[in-house]
Design a protein that fits this description.
Layout (H helix, E strand, L loop, with lengths): L1 H18 L4 H27 L4 E7 L8 H4 L1 H5 L4 E5 L6 H15 L6 E6 L6 H18 L4 E6 L7 E5 L5 E6 L28 E7 L1
Parallel strand pairs: 2-3, 3-4
Antiparallel strand pairs: 1-7, 2-5, 5-6, 6-7
């Protein structure tokens, strides 16, 4: 961008020189310089137009707001036909957190291009939550395999950031930075309420999600 702007300023100075009274020899010299600058500026302009400028979208969800789902939230990244998805969330321990993970993977699995899903999380505390986490990852992996999707789970005890990365075969990468991770929906008073299976009925926590395409 700076090179392009410098070329434009150079062209303006040359145009001013051509307007000033001077010898024909100097005018020819300035004209040659002008043609050279014009050619270079055009090349730089075309290069500039090919630059992949990152797209950024910030989504602010208010407390108790409804109408959201993972399909709606990640519609733009999924529209680019990702093949690899990496879910990074340190807190996938409790039953509702694991249920959110499964719901997100159901949305991703409906995108036919997806072939690999990688989950990075912390190990659940010893006891029932750890057993539940291990069973979830095992059963989820088996069901994804039936749809020709490979699931890999990694554990990091120092993990803090919450994000999901989507990458397609053209190396287009979307990054969804999740303020609360996948845990953006409030707990239902009963599993027999609206929202048990259709998340658009559920109330949300206040959260900001930033989507970046680069």
């Amino acid at each position: 961008k700076q090179w392009y702007q410098r070329r434009v300023r150079g062209l303006e100075k040359l145009m001013e020189k051509l307007k000033q009274p001077t010898s024909s020899e100097k005018k020819d010299h300035y004209k040659n310089l002008l043609n050279t600058y014009l050619s270079r500026a055009e090349v730089l302009k075309k290069k500039k137009s090919r630059v992949n400028v990152p797209q950024v979208q910030e989504i602010r969800i208010a407390n108790d707001e409804t109408g959201w789902s993972f399909a709606k939230l990640f519609a733009k990244p999924l529209a680019d036909s990702p093949t690899h998805i990496r879910i990074q969330d340190p807190y996938l321990h409790a039953r509702h957190q694991l249920a959110n993970l499964v719901m997100a993977c159901e949305v991703f699995a409906r995108t036919r291009s997806v072939s690999h899903i990688r989950i990075i999380t912390r190990t659940a505390p010893p006891g029932d939550q750890k057993i539940q986490q291990q069973k979830c990852m095992r059963d989820l992996g088996d069901s994804l395999t039936e749809r020709q999707i490979t699931l890999v789970t990694n554990y990091s005890e120092t993990l803090h950031d919450r994000e999901i990365r989507f990458k397609n075969d053209n190396n287009v990468v979307w990054v969804a930075i999740l303020g609360r991770g996948l845990d953006m929906f409030k707990k239902l008073p009963s599993w027999f309420c609206l929202g048990a299976t259709d998340y658009t009925f559920r109330k949300c926590h206040e959260v900001t999600v930033t989507l970046t395409r680069g």
